[in-house]
Specification:
- The structure holds two protein chains of two kinds.
- By secondary structure, chain A is mainly beta.
- Helix content of chain A is 0%, strand content 40%.
- Chain A has a four-stranded antiparallel sheet with strand order 4-5-6-11, with no helix packed on it.
- The radius of gyration of chain A is 15 Å and the shape is elongated.
- The relative contact order of chain A is 0.19.
- Chain B is an all-alpha fold.
- Chain B has six helices and no strands.
- Chain B starts with a helix and ends in a 29-residue tail after the last helix.
- The chains are: A mainly beta, B mainly alpha.
- At the A-B interface, loops of A face helix 5 of B.
Chain lengths: 139, 188
């Protein structure tokens, strides 16, 4: 780890010295995020939930778009990230609301606002280090 | 509020404010589910719906019992219910169990019911894990509710044909075999 980086049970903080739009930011070592784990990391001033599902990494903004719950304290449930506050679940790759999006009727006005997607970020792994793109993934 | 009741839980290493927040969200989910299950129940009609109606009714009444059982514990721990019911409803630990767009679509209704029960199972498992070995009173309560939520899931799941029946039906509607001892006015 570089000077200034820190990694605690709750998550890792590994900042690049400088950052700019679109830059890849080191956020964790692969071994700090074992399969099935969710860790809190920072990139470009954003707190993210870094997720490892069977060796594949995903990054979502840590603030739940529903009511601001801590997605970085959420759990993986059937391949989705579940918010611990109100149990909304998000697709790891697209950020789409999986639940209750799968059961909310589309004829009630106002409900769609409850189903906003989580912002996702591109992730790459190189030489045992996980990098997150500084800008959200395009939908 | 019992001062020592809260103090011993804090001393055991539990973040009591966080626990109270979880209990309030759980109570809100029970309260809102009671409301939404009422709407689902009255719409469960027809060949498939009439069979489902009794099960919804058991789950509906037991969810109300869960709300009743949770509330005293919230206040014992120094918490409170929001003064505004709208704030309370927004805080529910599980999404609302809306009546499907086509209320005659019993398959869609069952999907709503099963998802709601599965959410409840995760809520109470989380509270059990947080309090295990630290807060026996909350743990005992959450575990009792968890037992009933697991059975509710089984009822609806079996109705969907997802597995053989465990025969967890109730002798009387909504009798809450595990939670009734926590109710201020015991049933029966």
């Amino acid at each position: 780890m570089a000077t200034g980086d820190r990694c605690e049970p709750s998550g890792c903080v590994m900042r690049e010295a400088t950052s700019s739009r679109g830059r890849w930011v080191r956020v964790a070592r692969v071994e700090d995020v074992p399969p099935g784990a969710v860790r809190s990391v920072w990139a470009e001033g954003r707190r993210l939930a870094l997720v490892n599902v069977d060796g594949r990494f995903y990054a979502l903004e840590a603030i739940c778009p529903h009511r601001g719950g801590p997605l970085d304290q959420g759990e993986i449930w059937r391949g989705t990230l579940e918010c611990p506050w109100h149990r909304h679940r998000y697709d790891l790759a697209s950020g789409a609301n999986v639940y209750p999006g799968n059961v909310y009727p589309d004829d009630l006005p106002g409900l769609q606002a409850e189903l906003r997607p989580a912002r996702t970020f591109p992730v790459k792994v190189q030489n045992g280090i996980v990098y997150v793109g500084g800008e959200p993934a395009e939908r | 509020m019992g001062k020592v009741a809260r103090e011993v839980v804090e001393k055991a290493g539990v973040n009591v404010n966080e626990l109270v927040a979880k209990l309030v969200r759980a109570a809100a989910a029970e309260f809102t589910t009671y409301y939404y299950y009422t709407i689902l129940r009255v719409n469960a009609i027809g060949f498939e719906g009439e069979g489902l109606k009794e099960i919804i009714e058991d789950a509906r009444i037991e969810d109300r019992n869960h709300f009743e059982a949770l509330t005293p514990r919230i206040y014992e721990l120094g918490g409170s219910l929001p003064r505004d019911i709208k704030d309370f409803a927004k805080e529910a630990a599980c999404p609302d169990a809306y009546l499907p767009k086509d209320p005659r679509n019993i398959g869609e209704m069952l999907k709503v019911l099963v998802e709601a029960e599965r959410c409840a199972i995760r809520v109470y498992t989380d509270i059990c894990q947080m309090t295990a070995g630290k807060d026996p009173r909350t743990h005992d309560l959450a575990l009792a509710i968890l037992h009933e939520e697991v059975e509710h899931e089984a009822w609806f799941s079996e109705f969907l044909g997802e597995g053989p029946s465990g025969h967890f039906r109730r002798g009387a509607p909504g009798e809450s075999p595990y939670t009734s001892r926590f109710l201020v006015v015991p049933k029966g």
